[in-house]
């Protein structure tokens, strides 16, 4: 036997499973695609319906409320760059894609993180899974997503969701594990229900760490933007891909800088909210 001829092919095991899923759960995948497309379309409409100057003013005001005037000016400058670079629509599409992905990632990771913090067996079971998820290169997630949902924005969002879940889940678990026991005991001694303890004691105390998890989830989701352009997701990733394939250096550079601007915008907004929340607590 020639051991050099022995090969391990994961595709030989995964292909039948993918075929079975496509044959038996096609309706479910279509439903998921329609729901995601509807939510994504609504957010894009909300971002693109007002004039760019109006939206910039709203974001500046929101940044001032959430953080401070410095963050507000910075947010306005980043959005103005996207506008004057001629990439306003693509930038809003990217923000919409990231918003949907982060919303779903947080919806999955937050309850799982609380459960893992309270049940040791769940925490032990999730740990190796999270280690693998954070070790696998991000583009690998696009392969099964495209096989199940075809090309377009939906597989890009699915892959982004999977990539963004681990940091939020880990930090949610950490936040609830580090809660001071005396505060929880005080709430129980006062006769507070588990629901009141969760919303009145646990969440406010864990908020700074949770916001860090949200910040990491946003930034990792943005890391998928260029890859999402490879599967037809549109947005700034598509502009970067177009610039590379056509050897248009100016377009690729502008799109890359616009991605940096969007990343800095979301990072400063989340960090500003984090710092304000930390000062309050």
From TrEMBL:
Record membrane topology: Multi-pass membrane protein
Protein name: ABC transporter permease subunit
Subcellular locations according to the entry: Cell membrane
Keyword terms, alphabetized: Cell membrane, Membrane, Transmembrane, Transmembrane helix, Transport
Main localization of the protein described in the UniProt heading: membrane
ABC transmembrane type-1 domain boundaries: 91-270
Gene3D superfamilies the UniProt entry points to: MetI-like
Tagged with keyword Membrane: yes
Regions that span the bilayer: 20-40, 47-66, 72-90, 97-119, 139-165, 210-231, 251-270
Pfam families noted in UniProt: BPD_transp_1
Lineage, uppermost ranks: Bacteria, Pseudomonadati, Pseudomonadota, Gammaproteobacteria, Pseudomonadales
Family: Belongs to the binding-protein-dependent transport system permease family.
BP GO annotations: choline transport; glycine betaine transport
